[in-house]
Amino acid sequence: SGLAMLRHLGYTENAAVIENALLYTLEQGMHTGDFGDRSTPSLNTTQFADAIISNFGKTPKASARPLQAN
Question: How many Cβ atoms from other residues are within 10 Å of residue 21's Cβ?
C-alpha cells in the first residue's frame, strides 16, 4: 500500500528504492514469522524493517524496479 501511495503521489524513484530493498532482503532469506521459509529463523517487524533500510540502494537479482520512470 505504501509503495502504491508513493507512486500515486509521484515519488516513483523513492518507491523503486524501497521495493528493490525489500526484494533484495527477501532474496537474502530474511523474513518475518508470518511468511517465508519456516525452517529458517524469522525476524520481528522492527528487525525486518531495519534490514530493508540497510539494503536501500541494493538491486535484487530478480524483478528489480527501474529507478527512473519511463
Answer: 20
